[in-house]
Specification:
globular, alpha+beta, 81 residues, Arc Repressor Mutant, subunit A
């Protein structure tokens, strides 16, 4: 399974934004073999660069949250065909 597609799939299944630690945990439970933090960070950066996801960082600290964009939903739909 493709890591980028799985990230988009998980985010598409949420209502709103998803905390980064929970996203990484879910991916590690779903994708064999276990993905590394470096692989996850690289995939997140790539998806963000393509504007498929957007990050939300609380001003007063806290967990980074991720949300799929309309472009990301389109890319996911294309990948799942």
């Amino acid at each position: 399974m493709n890591l980028n597609v799985e990230i988009l799939r998980v985010l598409d299944g949420t209502n709103g934004s998803y905390p980064e630690p929970a996203l990484l945990h879910e991916l590690r439970m779903t994708l064999p073999p276990t993905i590394t933090t470096a692989e996850f960070d690289s995939a997140i950066r790539g998806l963000q660069d393509k504007r498929y996801i957007t990050g939300i960082k609380p001003e007063l600290g806290g967990e980074m949250r991720w949300k799929i964009t309309d472009e990301g939903k389109g890319a996911l739909n294309s990948a799942l065909r």
